[in-house]
Amino acid sequence: MVRRRRGETTAGKRPAIVPLFVLGFLAMMLVRSSGIVPSAALSVVKVVTTLLFAAALFGLGSGVRIGALLRAGRRGLVLGALSTLLVAGAGYGALAVVGV
């Protein structure tokens, strides 16, 4: 919105106020909440989602270069460990609040 307000353009076009993926996410959320989708389809989608998420994490993990990580030194390793603990703690806290 800041770029749009400043009048910054890309090839003569103004940036969108809301990205399309956000609109798509909201539309799918409404479809899911409406009860239109049968439960059999939801169970299949749940498995597919889990597989795609695992594939994405594998892709991210395979991009890690151990040599570069070791060259970053102790500070880089500590930062990585602390950020992992922060994400794990936030996830655990969210699950504790929800009660799952």
Structural features, described:
- With 100 residues, this protein is an all-alpha fold.
- It is built from five helices and no strands.
- The longest helix has 26 residues, at 73-98.
- The protein is extended.
- It starts with a helix and ends with a helix.
- The mean pLDDT is 86.
Short descriptors:
100 residues; 76% helix; extended; single chain; mainly alpha; 5 helices; 0% strand
Q: What is shown here, in short?
A:
The protein has 100 residues and is an all-alpha fold. Helices cover 76% and strands 0% of the residues.
SSE blueprint and pairings:
Blueprint: H1 2-6, H2 20-34, H3 39-62, H4 66-71, H5 73-98
Number of strands: 0
User: pLDDT average, as an integer?
Assistant: 86
Main sheet characteristics? none
Number of helices: 5
